[in-house]
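Training component of the fellowship. As part of building independent skills, the fellow (R.M.) carried out the full modelling exercise for a liganded target. The chosen ligand was NDP. The inputs are recorded below so that the supervisory panel can assess the work.
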Amino acid sequence: MRISFIGLGHLNSAIVAGLLADGYDRDNIVATTHSAASAATRRQEFGISVTAEEDSPGTNAQAVADADIVVLGVKPFHIVDTAQSLADALRPETVVVSVAAGTTLATLTSALPEGQPVVRTMPNVALTVGKGAVGLARGATVTDEQVAQVERLFAASGTVFHLPEDQLNALAAMAGSGPGYVFRFVNALAAGGMALGLDEHVAQELARLTVVGAGAMLDTDDADPAALEDSIATEGGVTEAALNSLDANDFNQVIVQALQANVTRSQELGA
Ligand SMILES: NC(=O)C1=CN([C@@H]2O[C@H](COP(=O)(O)OP(=O)(O)OC[C@H]3O[C@@H](n4cnc5c(N)ncnc54)[C@H](OP(=O)(O)O)[C@@H]3O)[C@@H](O)[C@H]2O)C=CC1
Ligand SMILES: O=C(O)[C@@H]1CCC=N1
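Fellow's submitted model of the complex:
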């Protein structure tokens, strides 16, 4: 299965890293970037063929010509132009996969030749460490076998959820962006520790290790976050006092509002 990655930034790199860690043959992966500098960096990082549009205009079209799967990993505001620029080079059976936030199957389909198989996905960067969560919605003309091939691309390094397209923005709000919220939490925890007088390095290490440890405790199929929370919050103890403070500050509502802002932005990007 030959896979072409158009764009090799944070997200497509996470997919490539996951594939390579799973033993995927480097010779069956090619990628492109905009800049020569990025291409050189990624070539070095992954040991795959990476070419830059800046160096050789038309390299995107060359990269997709014999691909079985093309993964469009450019920013949402570039995706329609990019898809249109590839249209003449695509074989009719090549599956075009989008990872872009917001961009709908209808928009993608209309930018591509009639009948081109399309799959819209929403992965997250935890693919890099084999712990990705990926939403997948199929286009009208993609076959079951092609969907299974796309699923294998992500299943190498994550868990795939087949969802109706109208639920992908919600998945993006939770899981696509979710690692970003967790990293923000780690930074906030470290800042909190420093405010209590801890040295910066100690506070950052404590924050990082705390989230790594809690994440590992969740890393079983039957993990129960509510029970885990209870196991730490001793009645009348210090954790309970802190959680009550979060509740008093409407922590859950803060999260709901953040997810809603994320969905609203997806809708704007998709409009
Ligand atoms: N980052 C994330 O966690 C997630 C991102 N996504 C989606 O992934 C997509 C990419 O996001 P992200 O990886 O963060 O963005 P990046 O900016 O990191 O990557 C964009 C990539 O596109 C390349 N590019 C730009 N123009 C062209 C072109 N004309 N031809 C070939 N390559 C080009 C860039 O090259 P260069 O480096 O040279 O500029 C870069 O490699 C977005 O649509 C986003 O919605 C989805 C889920 C999670
Ligand atoms: O922030 C973004 O738009 C992308 C999509 C989900 C995560 N990063």
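The panel noted the following from the submitted structure. The chain is about 55% helix and 15% strand. The radius of gyration is 21 Å.
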